[in-house]
Amino acid sequence: MGKLSDVQIKQWIKAGERFDMRSDGDGLYLSFRKDYSIPVWRFRYRFAGKQRVMNMGSYSDLSLADARKLAKELRAKVSLGHDVAAEKQERKAEAAAKIEAEKNSVTVGKLADEYFERMILGRWKHPNIVRSRIERDIKPSIGKMKVEDVKPVHIDAMLQKIVKRGAPTIANDVLRWTRRMFDFAVKRYMVQYNPASAFDLSDAGGREEARDRALSREELVMLFEAMRDAKGFSHENMLTVKLLLLLAVRKQELTGARQTEFDLDNAVWHLPAERVKTETAIDIPLPPAAVEALRELQQLACGSEWLLPARKAQHRMIPHIHENTLNVAMAKLKPLMPGVSPFCIHDFRRTARTHLAALGIDPHIAERCLNHKIKGIEGIYNRHDYFDERRRALELWAKFLDACEKGSDWNVIPLRRPA
What we know:
Blueprint: H1 6-15, E1 19-25, E2 28-32, E3 40-47, E4 50-58, H2 64-79, H3 84-104, H4 108-120, H5 127-142, H6 152-164, H7 168-187, H8 217-229, H9 235-247, H10 251-255, E5 262-263, E6 268-271, E7 282-285, H11 288-300, H12 323-331, H13 347-358, H14 363-369, H15 376-381, H16 387-406
Helix pairs in contact: 4-5, 5-6, 5-7, 6-7, 8-16, 9-11, 9-13, 14-16
């Protein structure tokens, strides 16, 4: 039989004529077996005295002209000592191994999720703080990288990006958690070394100084005015900020509160131990202004089990509002408070403690209002919780804040004149 032609091949396909090998010459063959849906090109050659056959591709992928061109290239390689069929099998095996390795590879995102599930969830009181750092800072920067591909340069780039956006404290937190994550990976033979191990706080946000910021009465007046006037600052946010000021609780204690914790008829918040930094449950007396704000928030929650349910779809994994929701909202107030030094929500607790002292509240009562343990021997032997005293103190503080909100003069007599 002479050279093959496209006309012949198409006729064979149309007629369904089956055959094993039909030669085009120079080692090029066409095969159209019964189990084939389309003819297949094969290249036959001898190597080391043995007959070898290599599949080149189907007729739908390789035209006759392309098959002849490829066969010519293969003959040239064989003449130079290449076993082209064996080399093709090796390439296929390498490609399959690479695909399998990619499928089984551990990305930083997977590492972060496993670390969170095994080392944070169920062990930390506020796991959402760690989850936030993972989702907002670590995953966007290096989450898609394989753990073994992460180098110190990638860690540095991630940290500097956070520092440049003006969040040095967060950069420090990200460094701490990234270092712990990769230590976790080293212990489980995912990587041989920790790419974040050489970094310290000077490479991230720098040494953190203790904060001493407290808002003055004039600044509190400006804060309430700004919350009323700021565009996009919701009524729900205003109520939440007022409660943080009124009760001097930690942000996570309020944002993660369930409706069942509140007994508004008796004006008490039963804060459970698992959500308290001191690991001790506490009953928080609620002044009338706090009860009023809580009743409004319960109505706005529309039947949710959470006092402050999540507002956006991206927070579905966290059923209540995210820790940064209030931070973002507070940023809207800064343009309306010119000349006021920067402050954050955590400064509200220091603000309350400072003004409680100015209002004549005994130090041990003021400390218990912030749920601080009483220090020294007294703290060991005195188990009294000062509930009634705390109620009177918080009611006086609430009157002070009400005057700030209304911008009226403050003329309530303190419980006790400071010495």
